[in-house]
Amino acid sequence: MRRIGCFLSSILITLLLITGCFVEPSAGFNDSRSDVMNEIKIALDVAGIPYTAANDGTIFYHSKYKEEIELIRDKVEEELSGGVLQKISGDISSSILVDELTSRNIKFHVEDHDSEQWVRWHPQNEEQKEEIHLAVVERTFKIKRNEY
């Protein structure tokens, strides 16, 4: 009888431990802007923070990651606003700008505003901003000079 009691106690403890591992307090959030949610998912993946995305786009996560997720959300919001916003006009300078940003490993986003496309990027400082603008102007000038 004592063996059965010990056996049942060990099973009960095991079950409590197992269920304790699966029952986690969770939190979630959603944003109507799909680009924001996509960037947050990428950042969560990079940070190695586990989450679940529902069909409606809501992201659920363990509450122990709340501070890290708030920092990630703030960073994504900052990256998707502010910075330098330049209209993509379809001319050669737009593709040169994208090429310059890509070659320098500067993160940028293409956004739609009033049926027009814009590139948003965040220079590290004013010097870098001017350096990239100058490179775009120089490369555009060289290409246009060779066309004539």
Which key features would you list for this structure?
148 residues; alpha+beta; three-stranded antiparallel sheet; 5 helices; 18% strand; elongated
Structural write-up:
By secondary structure, the chain is α+β, with helices and mostly antiparallel strands. 56% of the residues lie in helices and 18% in strands. Strands 1-3-2 form a three-stranded antiparallel beta sheet, with helices on one face. The chain has a three-stranded antiparallel beta sheet with strand order 4-6-5, covered by helices on one side. It is elongated, with a radius of gyration of 25 Å.
Give the overall average pLDDT: 80
Count of helical regions:
5
Low-confidence stretches: 15-23
Order of helices and strands: HEHEEHEHEEH
Distance between the termini: 100 Å
Q: Numbering strands along the chain, what is their spatial order in the largest sheet?
A: 1-3-2
Helix and strand composition category:
alpha+beta
Q: Whole-number radius of gyration? A: 25 Å
The number of distinct β-strands equals 6
Sheet with most strands: 3 strands, antiparallel
Helix content: 55-70%
Strand content: 15-25%
Shape by Cα distribution: elongated
